[in-house]
Amino acid sequence: MARILLTGGSGQVGGELLKTLAQLGEVVAPGHGELDLSNMDAVRHIVHELRPRWIVNSAAYTAVDKAETEAELAYTVNRDAVSVMGEEARAIGAGMVHFSTDYVFDGMKNDFYDEEDATAPMSVYGGSKLAGEQALATSGAAHMIFRTSWVYGASGKNFLRTILRLACEREVVRVVADQHGAPTWSRDLARMTAHVIAQVEAKAAGRNPGETGDGWSGIYHAAAAGETTWHGFAVEAVRLAAERGPSARFARVEPISTAEYPTPAKRPANSRLRCAKLEDRFGWTMMDWHDSLREVMSEL
């Protein structure tokens, strides 16, 4: 069975990957105490020690606002560690999966973003994630970079859980209504990743993934189908919660502008990602955000 090195196994996406990747082989998911992504020697050592067939990197520095004052750490984790993983993957013929973000774009496009569109991050976080993409692309490793957006799930710290908590505590909750994107379920991302790796393995016919990368390496957009705003997401979440608990009282969700909710890091106004390439290459269609939200709500 294949050995898969999974980073970020305690995170939202990583926790789901632990389950979906288990069908493909032995998943080794070191915790932070075993693998500190700010320590490049530790990153090299664990790849040398495990010699995995796949490296799946779901770990990242994701504190978007804090990154504005911790740029060095953000770039160390989101660029340097990814670069080292790519170099080591190339050396042993492993394939690598890496997750990136809509924040590599400036959000000024009036349509869905394609993989080939020009990048222009507006924040340190976005810049560090773009630098990680570029480092992996130039490492020589066979790789897939999955850009996604607005990730959430039934566990962990995320927008959905925060909104539902606030809706139970307050009379009014004000949510930004001029940023557009698609809330993406962490489990859908994990299922997609397992599906794609399985397809690559089926075509590899026993060869190392590194020998077959010409046929599948590159950037893919992998966000939920459909579109909404943060306000629209919150309204739908509270509506579904009210359906489940008709006797409970929930806050009124009011729209506000980005200007009314200033943050240290700028957010893209348009985070919509076109995922046709993922479907064309691997036959995977991401769930519509309405459908995935209903499933997540059923687990809360």
Describe the protein:
- The protein has 300 residues and is an alpha/beta fold.
- It has a single domain (2-152, 183-226, 272-287), classed as NAD(P)-binding Rossmann-like Domain (Rossmann fold), CATH 3.40.50.
- It is 40% helix and 17% strand.
- A 6-stranded parallel sheet has the order 2-1-3-4-5-10, with helices on both faces.
- Helix 1 (12-20) crosses helix 6 and helix 5 crosses helix 7 (230-244).
In summary, what is this structure?
This protein is of the alpha/beta class and 300 residues long. 40% of the residues lie in helices and 17% in strands. β4, α4 and β5 (142-148) form a beta-alpha-beta unit.
| Overall CATH class | Alpha Beta
**Architecture per CATH nomenclature, i.e. the level-2 architecture:** 3-Layer(aba) Sandwich
Q: Distance N terminus to C terminus? A: 34 Å
Question: How many β strands by DSSP?
Answer: 12
User: How is the biggest beta sheet arranged?
Assistant: 6 strands, parallel
Q: Could you tell me the strand content as a percent range?
A: 15-25%
What is the residue-mean pLDDT, rounded to a whole number?
A: 97
CATH superfamily: NAD(P)-binding Rossmann-like Domain
Rg (CA only): 19 Å
Can you list the strand order of the major beta sheet?
2-1-3-4-5-10
Say what the CATH topology is. Rossmann fold
Gross morphology is globular
Helix content: 25-40%
Number of helices: 9
Instruction: Name the structural class.
Output: alpha/beta
- Run of helices and strands: EHEHEHEHEEHEEEHEEHEHH
What is the count of distinct domains? Answer: 1
Low-confidence stretches: none
Can you give keywords for this protein?
single chain, globular, alpha/beta, 300 residues, two-stranded parallel ribbon, 6-stranded parallel beta sheet, Rossmann fold
